[in-house]
């Protein structure tokens, strides 16, 4: 006998169903829950006459976590029927509770996401406790799924098709209780547990014979359905919005959600449930949801929980940090640290430059206050934590340093030397260099074991990733402290070993090079941009190149080339190089900051279309590259070099590679990350190897699969930690 749902009945006949899975810290829709739900449903029906009403709540910190992702990621087309049956059983039982003829109230004591919110939707009334961090909504779309427990059917009937799609289903927005109330997802918010339960009881008292709106005679879906000509006139706008959301990239969930909502709105409730279930199972059995669950749930959890942090070192918090350089990156780093409660000394060459760096935080705070995301008091407190200065003595007492001055090794040495004996004697020493090897930079300080790379991404306040780079002499203690610092500022840390370009800068270079090379081969430049967008990259490749400037990769390339040749190796010339050289030397188009690049720019610096000269100077009559090849050249070049980075020992974890690629350099999320892309490729690893060889045959040796990949393909072993 399972005890996932506890039955508590008081003298007035109110039954409280307390969901409390004894086997785990959060409630999920596992087998035990399904069995338990069936039992309590039977009992509710059997004892109906003695029951006045029902409250559903939970004994966990959260109300209910949703589907069991461990089960879901294992579903195959063969086991899909089982999933369909299990899902239908839950739906049937929720429906039986909903139509019991007694008032049923969801008392959401904590987060109710996905399956949790679907249980709440099957209740006649929803009261949410305004608990800190509590979230409500249907985030399934962000894992490549749809709410298959009646979530599509009921949100459409509760809010109308348009609001259900835009506010709940297509974006997967997670609302705090107050915003959930404002958007109609819950009916009441309570400040305390007691108030929540009192409100639930009051509803039961006032509504002895509750019916869902959709079970009342004459009910119509709010806002109309496609059967209504006025509504039908708007219908074509939905697929267009969808295209805007996915950019044409292969995300099947939004499409299935739209279909389930629109088709389900035109039929009765029961048929709509079946339609929803079919679309759900199609997603769950497909590859994309597995990729997304792997990355956004399992890998992210592994990375953030410190799978790659040295063991046995006590966690430490930074109290006061010195940020050296108040430019674009330094200003953003200062803001992120101050937001997390850390005192910040923001140092630049002059008091004005430092103050300008702080002004960036002032601007962000103003915006946050104006949008109601923070209070004036909190914003003022954040700003009070940032002390701008030009005086090196002000870094006294800092237990960590993050350097973000110009990308110049001599200058970086100089600024560390200036402050290394003023900060705390064991202060953690971090450099935000984007390209310089950490081991060599460390030679500029006395305590090399405390020196480490902390590579932030721009814009720092928005980008969730930080790449931690361990130099040859970096100690375990410094690595653990750097990891803790990144978590303290609520970002996601991946850990790599030192190498030119580390992981992220090196791999994104391949994406850009492929795009540029195709222009050189005479591919229509607009098609190159389109190929990147439809592959799911957030930034178009040529526009990204312009942002970075064409001269920067050229400088990095020349340095790398010199290093390779000095080590006695041969530099493998990439076809992109000659295109970049011509763009800079022959056409004087160094990128956006220079006023001209692959794109033209107007006087205000806005993109004004692709440069027509590209077609003139690079077009060749025989350039016929299939669209699929264009996309896969970008995706494969990044994936193959990631495998080489594993071979070289720069990367040591699959989860870090997957998360770093999506969160740091925009590798498409539907793939589950750069190594999961290989795992999930059609035909698995052997399929990927075959295709890489094909690309190598057609486009060059850089697509030849590395030995590690071939070996894993032969053994049938996917990339896994
Ligand atoms: P930036 O040019 O905006 O800022 C550099 C700042 O350092 C300037 O405010 C300058 O006055 C200051 N500075 C120069 N000498 C100094 C000294 N002796 N003491 C104190 N401050 C001094 O540069 P940005 O873009 O912020 O880059 C800084 C570092 O971050 C570079 O190493 C860069 O490679 C790296 N980085 C840049 C990224 C980007 O997207 N821009 C991304 C990741 C890393």
From TrEMBL:
Which UniProt keywords are present, listed alphabetically?
Answer: Fatty acid metabolism, Lipid degradation, Lipid metabolism, Lyase, Multifunctional enzyme, NAD, Oxidoreductase
Recall the GO molecular function terms of this protein's record. enoyl-CoA hydratase activity; long-chain (3S)-3-hydroxyacyl-CoA dehydrogenase (NAD+) activity; NAD+ binding
Q: Which domain of life is it from?
A: Bacteria
Instruction: List the GO biological process terms.
Output: fatty acid beta-oxidation
CDD domains for the chain:
crotonase-like
Question: What residue stretches are annotated with the 3-hydroxyacyl-CoA dehydrogenase C-terminal domain?
Answer: 501-601
On whether Transferase is a keyword of this UniProt record, the answer is: no
Catalytic activity from the UniProt record: a (3S)-3-hydroxyacyl-CoA + NAD(+) = a 3-oxoacyl-CoA + NADH + H(+)
What InterPro entries does the database record attribute to this sequence?
3-OHacyl-CoA_DH_NAD-bd (IPR006176), 3HC_DH_C (IPR006108), 6-PGluconate_DH-like_C_sf (IPR008927), ClpP/crotonase-like_dom_sf (IPR029045), Enoyl-CoA_hydra/iso (IPR001753), FA_oxidation_alpha_subunit (IPR050136), NAD(P)-bd_dom_sf (IPR036291)
Q: Which intervals hold domain 3-hydroxyacyl-CoA dehydrogenase NAD binding?
A: 320-498
The answer to keyword rRNA-binding applying to this record is no
Hey, which pathway is this one from?
A: Lipid metabolism; butanoate metabolism; Lipid metabolism; fatty acid beta-oxidation
Family membership noted in the UniProt record: In the central section; belongs to the 3-hydroxyacyl-CoA dehydrogenase family. Belongs to the 3-hydroxyacyl-CoA dehydrogenase family.
* UniProt name for this protein: Fatty oxidation complex, alpha subunit FadB
User: What is the native source organism of this protein?
Assistant: Streptomyces davaonensis (strain DSM 101723 / JCM 4913 / KCC S-0913 / 768)
């Amino acid at each position: 006998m399972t005890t996932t749902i506890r039955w508590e009945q008081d003298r007035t006949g109110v039954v409280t169903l307390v969901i409390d899975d004894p086997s785990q810290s959060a409630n999920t829709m596992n087998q035990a829950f399904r069995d338990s739900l069936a039992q309590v449903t039977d009992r509710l029906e059997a004892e109906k006459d003695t029951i006045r009403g029902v409250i559903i709540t939970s004994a966990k910190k959260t109300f209910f976590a949703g589907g069991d992702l461990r089960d879901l990621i294992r579903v195959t087309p063969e086991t899909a029927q089982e999933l369909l049956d299990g899902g239908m059983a839950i739906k049937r039982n929720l429906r039986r509770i909903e139509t019991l003829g007694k008032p049923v109230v969801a008392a959401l004591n904590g987060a109710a996401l996905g399956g949790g919110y679907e249980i709440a939707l099957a209740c006649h009334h929803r009261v949410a406790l305004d608990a800190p961090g509590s979230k409500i909504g249907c985030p399934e779309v962000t894992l490549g799924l749809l709410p298959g427990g009646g979530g599509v059917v009921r949100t459409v009937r509760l809010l109308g098709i348009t609001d259900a799609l835009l506010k709940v289903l297509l974006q997967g927005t997670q609302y705090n209780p107050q915003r959930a109330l404002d958007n109609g997802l819950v009916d009441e918010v309570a400040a305390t547990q007691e108030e929540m339960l009192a409100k639930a009881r009051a509803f039961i008292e006032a509504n002895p014979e509750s019916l869902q709106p959709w079970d009342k005679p004459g009910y119509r879906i709010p806002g109309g359905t496609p059967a209504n000509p006025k509504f039908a006139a708007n219908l074509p706008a939905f697929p267009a919005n969808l295209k805007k959301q996915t950019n044409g990239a292969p995300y099947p969930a939004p499409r299935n959600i739209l279909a389930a909502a629109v088709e389900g709105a035109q039929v009765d409730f029961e048929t709509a449930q079946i339609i929803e279930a079919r679309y759900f199972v199609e997603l769950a059995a497909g590859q994309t949801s597995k990729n997304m669950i792997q990355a956004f749930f399992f890998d992210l959890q592994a990375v953030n929980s410190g799978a790659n942090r040295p063991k046995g070192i006590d966690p430490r918090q930074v109290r006061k940090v010195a940020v050296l350089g108040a430019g674009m990156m330094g200003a953003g780093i200062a803001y992120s640290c101050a937001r997390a409660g850390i005192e910040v000394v923001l140092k630049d060459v002059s008091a004005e430059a430092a103050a300008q760096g702080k002004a960036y935080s002032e601007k962000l705070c103003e915006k946050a206050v104006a949008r109601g995301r923070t209070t004036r008091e909190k914003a003022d407190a954040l700003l009070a934590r940032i002390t701008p200065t030009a005086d090196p003595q002000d870094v006294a007492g800092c237990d960590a340093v993050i350097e973000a001055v110009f990308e110049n090794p001599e200058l970086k040495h100089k600024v560390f030397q200036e402050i290394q004996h003023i900060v705390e004697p064991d202060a953690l020493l971090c450099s935000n260099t984007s390209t310089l090897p950490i081991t060599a930079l460390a030679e500029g300080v006395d305590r090399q074991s405390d020196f480490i790379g902390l590579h932030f991404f721009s814009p720092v306040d928005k980008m969730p990733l930080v790449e931690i780079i361990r130099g040859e002499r970096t100690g375990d203690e410094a690595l653990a402290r750097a990891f803790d610092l990144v978590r303290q500022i609520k970002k996601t840390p991946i850990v790599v070993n030192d190498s030119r370009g580390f992981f992220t800068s090196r791999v994104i270079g391949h994406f850009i090079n492929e795009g540029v090379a195709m222009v050189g081969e005479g591919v229509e430049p607009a098609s190159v941009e389109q190929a990147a967008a439809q592959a799911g990259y957030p930034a178009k490749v040529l526009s990204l190149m312009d942002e970075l400037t064409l001269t920067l990769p050229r400088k990095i390339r020349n340095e790398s080339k010199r290093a390779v040749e000095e080590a006695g190796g041969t530099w493998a010339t990439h076809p992109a190089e000659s295109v970049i050289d011509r763009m800079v030397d022959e056409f004087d188009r160094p990128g956006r900051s220079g006023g001209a690049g692959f794109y033209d720019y107007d006087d205000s610096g806005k993109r004004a279309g692709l440069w027509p000269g590209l077609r003139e100077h690079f077009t060749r009559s025989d350039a016929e590259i299939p669209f699929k090849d264009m996309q896969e050249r970008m995706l494969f070049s990044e994936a193959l070099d990631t495998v080489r980075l594993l071979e070289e020992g720069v990367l040591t974890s699959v989860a870090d590679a997957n998360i770093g690629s999506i969160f740091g350099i925009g590798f498409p999320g539907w793939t589950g990350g750069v190594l999961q892309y290989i795992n999930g490729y059609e035909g698995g690893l052997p399929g990927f190897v075959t295709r890489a060889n094909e690309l190598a045959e057609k486009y060059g040796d850089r697509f030849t699969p590395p030995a590690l990949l071939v070996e894993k393909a032969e053994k049938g072993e996917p990339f896994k930690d």
